[in-house]
Amino acid sequence: SDHQLDYPRCPSEMNWDTHFQGFESPVPEFADVGCGYGGLLVGLSPLFPKTCMIGMEIRVKVSNYVKERIDALRYQNEGQYGNISIMRSNAMKFLPHIFEKGQLSKMFFLFPDPHFKKKKFKARIINECLLAEYAYCLKEGGLLYLATDVEDLHLWMIDHCEKSPLFQKVDEEIVRNDPVVQHVLYSTEEGKKVERNNGKKYMAVYERLSSN
Ligand code: SAM
Questions:
Q1: 0.80 exceeded by the pTM?
Q2: How many domains does the chain have?
Q3: Known catalytic membership, residue 17
Q4: Disulfide check for 55: which of 35, 80, 144, 160 has CB 3.0–4.6 Å away?
Q5: Tell me, what CATH number does 172's domain have?
């Protein structure tokens, strides 16, 4: 559980050098929150070779798997995949200890655990309090990507984003032309599973507004 997780006291204590390869002083700009087996990172890595991306995953075995997956990709493809990495962490805690204000340009919440029971709604990774933290970590104009196959959770997530003064929904037309969206829907392991089962997918993209 959490007490075994080490958090830096503040973002300047984060040592990103150990995470990324081939960068002078790397700082991640994309965060995949609850990244699972890392399919999104692997899919986006060649699309944004100059951008560092960090996956956050709470499960030990899964985060170890992602580390090994990335190590193997780096080994097999020299000079590639140095821009993606994984950290084991509880993303519902201490995000502002990890990221500077406005550090991120994209955050991903893809197929998060739905927590169906009303009593468990507070465990949902999109809520009023955490949205304010995500807004803090995102730069103005930064994007929050949401995807799920659970309609009830989709409605919950967009309802919270709509209520937040810090976010505005991105127009469908712009979303359609965003090359990242294909990966959001089809590159993650959960997205692939939903695809195999012919499940419906819901997605939305919100932009971080300026706070003043
Ligand atoms: N995004 C991936 C995908 O689309 O394939 C994984 C989806 S999976 C249903 C949800 C993941 O979020 C699980 O791997 C779970 O361990 C992770 N997770 C749940 N709560 C978390 C938290 N507080 N911090 C980090 N990861 C979390």
A1: yes
A2: 1
A3: no
A4: 35
A5: 3.40.50.150
